Amino acid sequence: MIYKLFIFFLPFISIGFFYNFLRGWSVNLSLYFLLFLLPLVLLKLFNKKFSFILRKKDSKIYFIVFLIFFLMIFSTVIMNIFFIFIDNEIDIRILNIMKIFFNVGIMIGIFIITFLYNNSISKALITLKYILYSSIFLIIYGYLQMLVMFRIPIFFDLYTYIHPIIDSGWAGEFREFNYLEWYFRINLTTPEASEASHVLTVLIIPFLLASLILKKSLIFKSFMVEKILFYLTLPILLMIFSTSGYFVIIIQIIAAFLLYKFYLSHSVNLLKLSLLLLFLIICVYFYLVYMNDLVNDPLFFLLKFLDMSNGSTNSRFTLTLTSLLVGFQYFLLGTGYGDKFVLMKDNLPSSAYSNAEILNSISEYDLPALNYWTDVFSSYGIFYLILYFLLQFIINYKLYIKSKYSEIAKYFFIAHTLYFIGTFLQGFNSMSNYFIYVWFLLFFFLVISLQRYQKHE
Q: Which residue from 2, 113, 179 is spatially nearest to 444, judged by alpha carbons?
């Protein structure tokens, strides 16, 4: 039961309990179930109540995972020792090393839980079931937020009661204002709108689209459940008003079309789906912009990335280039955990000092990269990225080979392909290092890619 709750609450990433101890990880509601579950699992392992088989050929794949963990620790230890001779800040260096051991410890905990609870197809389907149950809650909550935006009093009262419980903002923020009313954007159970689009396009939509493509549900009696959930998700994505969310869902739908064509070899239903999507988007857009006189224009957010005068766009572009510059300076091992923030401040272009958002970050917070790929590149070096993408390629290839004779493997191959598209593209707009569901999905697809599938299963 605890594991099921751990899965169900994966999208809840705006909590913040025990921030002083758990830091960035504290935003994850699932973390607290993980910390409760780990001792129980280790005790069962000690008493041999958990049985699993680790095949020799699979151990080579798992070795890549632990090599990634090792690189994070190794680069942090080596580079912090190196920086001691430059600034003599011994206390800070020791703290950075302690933090990376803590972070990697959490990741290893996620890996252990994922491995033990998904080391068979039947167990993996239980996980999938609770991911879909969680998506149902997210959609219901998304429409509640939508009704609040439409100024319906009874729903506003309900939302006012619920949202403080599950929305504390970013780690350590503990905000008291109502994000929805302040920014007029749906943020679901996340700190802000862009992270809501990340949850939908990475954790939820890949599984829904996989069912639509194969016209098959692995959980429900009919794939119509996933079909309805997918259609209901689109208006929520529209009202999140996230530039990255718009682009990612468009690319995912195009990829889904190609996979549909590849597996089913016809396009009649594909045309119907395209027309329906277009109709839904036009109707919702018309209502939002013209009928209800809302302040946010979806076209503005769709094209915002082209406007460098926009504060948000300028910040992301500047900080991405700055972290990339730091990465090139330390491209083998990176800077290790902690020092990238200081080095980014030293490498900011002069134009950045006219940006109010960046100046605020410099004065009050560590300077973030706002880009997952340049963040890990500058922190842990080029070998981290090589190993990460190698691992994703191996997962996808193994699922593809098995999809030739297994329907279940075919489903997970499609889901992983769409998940990786979402993860890769959202990585240019999101700092997802501390989101448990990001690490969980990587390990989940890894574990199920190594399962034995029966023919025509």
A: 113
